[in-house]
Write a structure and sequence with these properties.
seven-stranded mixed beta sheet, SAM-dependent_MTases_sf, Rossmann fold, 274 residues, disordered N terminus, alpha/beta, 11 strands, two-stranded antiparallel sheet
């Protein structure tokens, strides 16, 4: 995200960092455990056995950085464009010998080429992760280009993002009731109508219900999302779409995304250089 943008998305994240952390928590919320962790595990677990050096882009409160250490990473460089997010992440770093010296935090804007270059001073990374942040980043070209110098020859890049078809598109959520013609029982049907997908301007929204300032979402159709990384020569070797299940049903908020079990809320993918 570029702090020079008139919308100043980084400043917005400084303003909501505390609210975001209070709801996501140091251990993660439902979205993390039910949707993100299965994707991270599938794409990363075989690599983490080798005790890789990892880079966690847009670390937020350090949730994924700690997860990487817990699952075998030898070290993690965790960065975020928000100074307040970095402060929170540092405060949550466990005072535990198993973490000592393994996670380093710093403020880095992923759309600033000079700042991204500083990340290579101690060598390349075996794993680069960007968990649930691509939709908050104003431009991806600098990030994509930086991966050429950030990734080790056999390194991987893993991303999770709000699903561009079913989440950041222009859509309406619908809840309808019908009687099943076979059983005669009443059924609640959950669906979404997509009215804008290929061209959606940056939109204001909220990440957590208590935040006082809205942040900017940057929607990208899949060809644009993947295309930035294809341009620099990367190939994709894995993609997953994650949806909630019936076990996540939210009776108090019938319109909750947890209830749309046939429509994925999150898209995950893994890339590398051939």
């Amino acid at each position: 995200m570029s702090s020079s943008s008139s919308s100043n998305p980084l400043a917005a994240w400084d303003g909501i960092a505390s609210d975001w952390n209070n709801q996501i928590t140091a251990k993660g919320n439902k979205y993390f455990h039910r949707l993100q962790v299965p994707i991270l595990t599938q794409f990363l677990v075989s690599h983490l056995f080798a005790s890789p050096r990892c880079l966690d882009l847009a670390t937020g409160n350090g949730l994924v950085a700690r997860w990487l250490i817990d699952h075998g990473a030898s070290s993690v460089v965790a960065v975020d464009g928000s100074k307040e997010m970095i402060r929170i992440a540092q405060s949550l770093n466990p005072a535990d010998p198993s973490y000592e010296g393994k996670i380093t935090f710093s403020k880095v804007d992923v759309t600033n080429a000079q700042e991204m270059e500083t990340l290579t001073k101690d060598g390349k990374f075996d794993v680069v992760v960007c968990n649930m942040a691509i939709m908050d980043i104003e431009r991806l070209d600098v990030l994509a280009d930086s991966l050429k110098s950030l990734l080790a020859p056999s390194g991987i890049f893993v991303v999770t993002v709000l699903h561009p078809v079913f989440f950041t598109s222009i859509h309406t959520r619908e809840v309808t009731v019908r009687y099943n013609p076979v059983t005669g029982e009443e059924e609640t049907m959950f669906s979404k109508t997509i009215s804008g997908y290929l061209s959606v301007p940056p939109t204001k929204g909220i990440a957590v219900s208590e935040q006082k300032v809205k942040q900017t979402y940057f929607h990208r159709p899949m060809n644009e999302l993947f295309g930035e990384f294809f341009k620099v020569g990367m190939v994709m070797d894995g993609m997953e779409e994650a949806a909630f299940t019936k076990e996540d049903y939210n009776e108090k908020r019938v319109q909750s995304n947890c209830n749309y079990t046939q429509l994925p809320a999150i898209l995950g993918f893994r890339m590398r250089f051939p």
